[in-house]
Amino acid sequence: MDLQGRVAIVTGGSRGIGKGCALALAEAGADIAIAYRKNEAAASKTAAEVKALGRRFLAYQADVTNDEQVRAMVAKTVETFGRIDILVNNAGGPSTGRRLINTEAGEMQHQINTHIMGPFYFTKAVLPTMRQQRKGNVIFISSVETKLFPAGHIPYAVGKSGVEAMAKCLSLEERDYGIRVNVVGPGVIDTDMSLRVARALKGSSNIMDLLEKWPFGRPGKPSDIANLIKFLVSDKASYITGQVIFVDGGGIQMWDLPEG
Ligand code: NDP
Asked: What lines the ligand 1 site, CB under 6 Å?
């Protein structure tokens, strides 16, 4: 996959799946801008790793739920690199695992803000540049929860379902401008987020305790997600748009997913 000369924004690119994407896209030749919320140390570490691959790098502290910060980051990316070819809407986090009856309105709002409004703000901000270029790729990260719809996971599953709806409509809206839009839905991936879920729902610091049975005997890795994204944003996938592709080892069992 050759992404030489391309510029990618990865939201939540400081850690986990987003970091995996930043590194994979950089390996393929793209310059990278990441948005992170607060963990500056993690962003600096990612910066060093991307730069070691010989790519240009911009780390920007922008909360995806803040439209103003998002627009400022996109403007800074254009100012720094002159273009934007790829947007990976990845930033996000888990919900509490409580059933609706015990879910605070604030938690529901937080999940919608992070998983729907964040990608909305970022996508809206990059589209004018991509349209001008007559070429672009937008990737949304959803979740296996849009296949499972497990009890106790309504705020998160609603957020991720919203993202899939947004992506499908958007793929038709932007096709004539040469912009492709796809969704990647991870299963359980070995990241800080899964560790938080394991601690909260299973009282364990071992991700392996999250499920009874693991596909292929292991959690997914950030690179499992990043490798697909690298393909989807490349010219080798130039006839693929509006798709939701799950990277979940073929599916986890519904009754495996814990409630809080
Ligand atoms: P991590 O917790 O490992 O990393 C989250 C990243 O998102 C960090 O870079 C964090 O920044 C950033 N972030 C979180 N909220 C915001 C915000 N409001 N504004 C800007 N940046 C933010 O998560 P994962 O890598 O595990 O998850 C990445 C995506 O994948 C999420 O959308 C998640 O829902 C999805 N996903 C994850 C699965 C998994 O098993 N891990 C399964 C299915 C989907 P900072 O470092 O500053 O905190």
From this structure: 11-12, 14-18, 35-39, 42, 63-65, 90-93, 114, 141, 143, 186, 188-189, 191-194
Q: 144-157 pLDDT, tens per residue?
A: 999 999 999 999 99
Residue with the two structure tokens 């273009």 = 83
**Radius of gyration over alpha carbons of the chain, in Å?**
17
Atom of ligand 1 nearest to the CA of 17: 25
Q: Pull the structure tokens for residue 248.
A: 């979940």
For the chain, the distance separating the N- and C-terminal CA atoms, rounded to the nearest angstrom, is 41
**In the chain, how many domains are there?**
1
Q: Is 121 contained in some domain?
A: yes
Catalytic annotation, pick one of 36, 60, 121, 156:
156
Which residue is closest in CA terms to ligand 1's atom 12? 12
Is residue 28 situated within a structural domain?
yes
| Ligand 1 atom nearest 219 alpha carbon | 40
For residue 14, how far is its CA from the centre of ligand 1 (angstroms)?
A: 9
- Round to whole Å and give the CA distance between 153 and 210: 15
- Domain of residue 35 covers 7-254
Can you tell me which atom of ligand 1 is nearest the CA of 38?
A: 47
Residue 239 annotated in active site: no
Cβ distance 135 to 153 under 8 Å? no
pLDDT tens column, 155-205: 999 999 999 999 999 999 999 999 999 999 999 999 999 999 999 888 999
CB atoms within 10 A of CB 133: 14
The predicted-structure confidence for 102-128, as pLDDT tens digits, reads as follows: 999 999 999 999 999 999 999 999 999
Report how far ligand 1's centroid is from the alpha carbon of 93 (Å): 5
Whether residue 260 is contained in a domain is answered as no
Q: Does residue 254 carry a pLDDT above 70?
A: no
